[in-house]
Specification:
Length: 120
Amino acid sequence: MIIYGVALLAFCYTVGQLLGDYLGNLLGVQANVGGVGFAMLFLVVLSDWLRKKGALTLHTENGIQFWNHMYIPIIVAMAATQNVKLAVSSGFIALAAGFIPVVLGMAALPLLTRLAKKTQ
């Protein structure tokens, strides 16, 4: 039952967008800063927390899993349409907010690969 995950997805997306808008205003950038990423993080954390509490039925868990799998391609498509020109013209903070996580992610890949091999 796919419909069961929609309420959780809508809640996480709304909270993520509000947080991204607030963070953008706080940093002085006239754009949403990380709202989509916050929403994805909230969805993963909240669904895992509910699963550990035993608050999810099998149908609800299947619905959330469906939306977890659908969410990433949808968000990538949405992020691709964002106004890059506005972000670049907004100054150094906008550029650093995009550049620093990419560099840190690339630097963390070798470490994560080694950790994954040790656990297997």
